Amino acid sequence: MSNEETIKLKVDLSISLANAKQEDVIDTGIPLSEWNALTEEERQKRGDEKWREWIWEYIDGGWEAAD
Fold this sequence. Notes:
This protein is α+β, with helices and mostly antiparallel strands. Helices cover 33% and strands 30% of the residues. The chain has a two-stranded antiparallel ribbon. It is elongated, with a radius of gyration of 16 Å.
């Protein structure tokens, strides 16, 4: 395993309720050298993927037919 620094992202999730916000700093596991080699579009895609993985730890729900 490399000792290279990895990219960390400040992430957040909020809903339309007062004080309904969660913020964290997550380690993406993406080495700094790899991140620096990405285009802005690729960085956006990778960041979005990591954010989506993170939000699923906080989202739960479902649906059913209403009468």
